Amino acid sequence: MKDKVKGIAHDLDVTKVTILGVPDHPGIAASIFSPLSDAGISVDIIVQNSSVDKLTDLSFTVERSSLDEALAVINPITKTIGASSLTSNTNLAKVSVVGAGMQSQPGYASTMFECLNKVGVNIEMITTSEIRITCIIHEEGVQKAIRALHSAFELEADIEES
Amino acid sequence: MKDKVKGIAHDLDVTKVTILGVPDHPGIAASIFSPLSDAGISVDIIVQNSSVDKLTDLSFTVERSSLDEALAVINPITKTIGASSLTSNTNLAKVSVVGAGMQSQPGYASTMFECLNKVGVNIEMITTSEIRITCIIHEEGVQKAIRALHSAFELEADIEES
Ligand SMILES: C[C@@H](O)[C@H](N)C(=O)O
Ligand SMILES: C[C@@H](O)[C@H](N)C(=O)O
């Protein structure tokens, strides 16, 4: 079942910003990301899970060099939209299993998660698409995560950075 | 800036399962998704945001026809891993802006979010990759969301289902 996997990608330049306790109604996501794009800040991944009691958390990642600027933009917005607080973490990395049509055949995500567990790497965030299963992890786990994933998916070498 | 967008995709067969209050340590994601893949259940998207006080929520989507089976698998696991509860929602749909290299140029996500806000569609979940910005919304908003997104990104017609 490893035949749909093209390779393992990783990115060491990953900084996460999380806005906590974001009110869950139309316009909130727009009021966070429009100012970021107006400031010319490139956002890599965006993750929002479903709300509980009408509140949710909204996370996004940027390159480390964009963090100060992103926080300067987001800080006032956090108050305007009535969110409870803002956190950021620069000690993260991204590892992805890259393939095609993986969601139509069970087992790829579980293989990735079992593999990270085997090497003691905690999964901080998960986001997926048809061609990519992405986990955000602590940066110190990246090398062992990549080696373990190559072995679990029977691959030779990294396909690419990020 | 619309030039990187290939089209708008949507999927009406979207059922979400959320496991709330999942302990955030290695092995938890594996213990949720291995039984699902052993049962032959195909999972579409998986979303996990970062934890607060060592707890997070883990959501995934399946086709409606797989919900009963997925719940039968996940119900006992919810207790075994010490999660607090389990919810599911079958009234959802997925809309995605599909393109290439969108994360390197700011504005695509904010355009999508502004657009959904304009037609009063609430964004329930967000997940992204380099080639796709995906929002889970309530299914009754799908038609107006698709029309509005085509117009916002100056596109002719749907590229594909899901
Ligand atoms: C939380 C945020 O995504 C909100 N639901 C919105 O539609 O903008
Ligand atoms: C919550 C879950 O992703 C956990 N952090 C794990 O590594 O399995």
Describe the protein's architecture and organization.
The structure is a homodimer of 162-residue chains. Chain A is α+β, with helices and mostly antiparallel strands and 162 residues long. Helix content of chain A is 29%, strand content 36%. The first copy, chain A, has helices spanning 28-38, 67-80, 108-118, 142-152; strands at residues 5-23, 46-48, 55-62, 85-99, 125-129, 132-138, 160-161. In chain A, strands 1, 2, 3, 4, 5, 6 and 7 form a seven-stranded mixed β-sheet that branches. Chain A is elongated and about 50 Å long. At the A-B interface, strand 1, helix 1, strand 2, strand 3 and helix 3 of A face strand 1, helix 1, strand 2, strand 3 and helix 3 of B. Strand 5 (125-129) of chain A pairs antiparallel with strand 2 (46-48) of chain B, so a sheet runs across the interface. One threonine sits between chains B (22, 24-30, 48, 56, 58) and A (113, 122-123).
